[in-house]
Specification:
alpha/beta; Rossmann fold; four-stranded parallel sheet; two-stranded parallel sheet; 48% helix; 8% strand; elongated
Length: 350
């Protein structure tokens, strides 16, 4: 399968609208800069969306789900059956991201890319099986080249569909037992850091479990030390859902769709996508700082400034969803506040 589309450039931010939005902020009835990051977020969204009045109404949340073979090494506090059980929970509205998307009036899509347990057909869930989870990357590469290419293409298709629906913002979510192990291994390989620096509790490991998880990752990094290019790192250590996120993020940049990145897993995907195309970073907003220790190191490498710091580490796109009301507030303040001229209020003394 061809991956030439990965090399396509991302769209350029419309600097004309950035300048217009910056000028408007100077004219609103407030001291310049007094709304802090709400001002800079509105200005950035105006440039990303190419609009005088940035909008944050049509939100697409897509949760990519898949299992990971590395779970066989005892790196998760939960069994792999939970992945499929949570997919069912998404479909009936019982998961955190289900509640959040309903509160936001966002569209929620769930895509099963390959779980260990297949089960019955679940209403509202799209099924694109690439295997019964990835291979155990402590023993072999997690994915074949064909599996990785298909996962990247699925992510791209999701982004193109979002573009066709005139979405204002894309949020990618993740679900997959042991995917913090995959994301940690990717982070170590991309940042050339020791597993002890990035490895965290994931679904709730104790101190011994974290140490064991780190040792598993370290051995795998030695085994696959030849995997140094971004796509090879993704193929050797990643997951179907992580590859789909990489494809979705790159395609969003190519299609001109702003992205709100969630937490640790999605940031690992964003980091790898930015290694493939550094210009993509302009299209990525970062919603929050996860409690996973590796997340902060990844954010630092991207020079990213998250909007929230709430100690969340759930995944699913939940942290990003929680940040959306602040983006909506930034847009509404920018669009609806009166200018000094409108309100007949004296401006700043010269």
């Amino acid at each position: 399968m061809s991956l030439e589309w990965l090399q396509q450039p991302v769209k350029s931010i419309d600097q004309t609208y950035v300048e217009h939005a910056s000028a408007r902020q100077e004219q609103l009835t407030k001291p310049p800069g007094s709304l802090g990051r709400l001002e800079s977020l509105a200005i950035r969204l105006a440039g990303l969306q190419g609009r005088e009045s940035p909008q944050m109404e049509r939100i697409n949340i897509t949760v990519f789900a898949a299992d990971h073979g590395i779970a066989a090494q005892g790196v998760s506090a939960f069994p792999q059956s939970v992945t499929l059980e949570m997919i069912r929970n998404f479909s009936v509205g019982g998961a955190a991201i289900s509640v959040i998307s309903n509160q936001l009036g966002a569209s929620l899509n769930v895509i099963n890319l390959g779980t260990v347990e297949v089960g019955e057909e679940i209403a509202g869930v799209s099924y694109f099986p690439l295997g019964h989870g990835t291979a155990d990357f402590s023993q072999s590469p997690a994915m074949t080249e064909e599996q990785m290419a298909k996962a990247l293409d699925i992510g791209r298709d999701v982004a193109i569909d979002a573009k066709n629906k005139s979405i204002d913002l894309f949020i990618g979510g993740d679900m997959g037992i042991a995917n913090t192990t995959a994301a940690t291994a990717m982070g170590c390989a991309l940042l050339d850091l020791d597993p002890d620096d990035l490895t965290g509790p994931g679904t709730g490991l104790d101190e011994y479990g974290i140490r064991h998880k780190s040792e598993v990752i370290r051995a795998a990094l030695v085994r696959h030390g030849h995997a140094q290019q971004p796509l090879e790192i993704l193929r050797h250590f990643g997951g179907f859902e992580i590859a789909a996120l990489v494809g979705a993020y790159l395609a969003c940049g190519q299609e001109g769709i702003p992205v709100l990145v969630d937490g640790f897993i999605t940031t690992a995907a964003a980091l790898l996508a930015c290694r493939l195309n550094p210009d993509l970073q302009e299209w990525l907003l970062f919603s929050h700082t996860s409690a996973e220790p590796g997340h902060q190191l990844m954010l630092r490498s991207l020079n990213a400034e998250p909007i929230l710091h709430l100690g969340m580490r759930l995944g699913e796109g939940s942290g990003a969803g929680v940040a959306v009301p602040l983006l909506r507030m930034a847009c509404n303040l920018h669009n609806q506040m009166a200018t000094f001229a409108d309100a007949g209020v004296a401006g700043k003394c010269r």
